[in-house]
Design goal:
By secondary structure, the protein is α/β, with parallel strands linked by helices. The chain is 38% helix and 14% strand. Helix 1 (12-24) packs parallel to helix 10 and helix 4 packs across helix 5.
């Protein structure tokens, strides 16, 4: 997402180079969405993997539809599902995607209808597997009854532990993998910011609840709770945060959204960070569920349906 939208200045050449470097390092799972840069990110990813399609597991999403006036709506209507996949395949330059997510649950369209249309895409060979994002346990169960759901993608990190309230348990009961987005707390857990003023004017985090006002300072102190342990282990705070997510289980896969090769190299090195039971206890004490100040989004109305 950050390669094309909402995180300040973008650099397409560096983004493509980062994807190419990721493939060299053994990173094979690429995650995008049609709404990232209004299709620009799908086109970028398509260019980056041209001639290398068989090297990647490719995931994209639909559901955040853009109106003529530029506003967005959540759309899970079957007709829209069919339109969205064809547009994504064209932008990506591929004949199928490996994993197709409903980006957000449409409260006005029964999940059974949406997943029924997604299942048709599997039968047509346009999609291999189905996924949901930010769905509640009840919605996951209803969707899975229509067609097997392969993955649930939701925000999950040391400072966003909401999935532990039921979603993770439901996924494990049904054999669904869990994909953790924003595993670095949108950069906060990496210790990158000492003030919101350091963010570019075009960066949506300037208006993010957790990056605003008194919340920022409280969350900065919270993030510093991992600094001592990271120093003891000789790793960065970002690597420690990623290692924590990976330690949640083999069925949990983090997707750090780096857009630079330098950060990519650091992120990949996190796979070699081993956390002891004592380390995990210290992190649990430092980051209890609900400790972060502020909501995850300015508008939480479409989350967890």
């Amino acid at each position: 997402m950050g390669m094309s939208a909402w995180y300040g200045v973008t650099d397409e050449a560096e983004s493509v180079a980062t994807i190419h470097r990721a493939l060299v390092l053994g990173v094979t799972f690429l995650d995008t969405a049609d709404v990232y840069g209004a299709g620009a990110n799908e086109r970028l990813v398509g260019r980056a993997i041209a001639g290398r399609r068989d090297e990647v597991v490719l995931a994209t999403k639909f559901g955040n539809a853009v109106n003529e006036d530029g506003s967005r709506r959540i759309d899970g209507r079957p007709g829209y599902v069919r339109e969205a996949i064809d547009a994504s395949l064209e932008r990506l330059g591929v004949d199928h995607v490996d994993l197709y997510y409903q980006h957000r649950v449409d409260a006005d369209t029964p999940i059974e209808e949406t997943v029924g249309a997604m299942a048709e895409l599997v039968q047509a060979g346009k999609v291999r597997h189905l996924g949901l994002s930010e769905a509640s346990p009840e919605t996951i169960r209803r969707a899975h009854a229509v067609h097997p759901i392969t993955a649930l993608q939701s925000e999950y990190s040391l400072w966003s532990r909401d999935p532990e309230a039921g979603a993770l348990e439901t996924c494990r009961e049904l054999g669904i993998g869990f994909v953790a987005y924003s595993p670095l707390g949108r950069g906060f857990l990496a210790g990158r910011f000492s003030s919101p003023d350091e963010l570019d004017d075009g960066d949506f985090r300037k208006g993010h609840p957790r990056f605003s006002g008194a919340n920022f300072e409280q969350n900065r102190r919270l993030a510093q709770g991992a600094q001592e342990l990271a120093k003891e282990k000789g790793v960065t705070r970002a690597q420690l945060a990623l290692a924590w997510v990976m330690a949640r289980g083999d069925d949990v896969v983090p997707i750090p959204g780096t857009k630079r090769r330098s950060f990519l190299e650091q992120n990949v090195a996190a796979v070699d960070v081993e956390l002891t039971s004592g380390d995990l206890e210290r992190l649990d004490e430092a980051f209890p569920r609900g400790a972060a100040a502020g909501d995850r989004y300015a508008d939480m109305s479409s989350i967890g349906r």
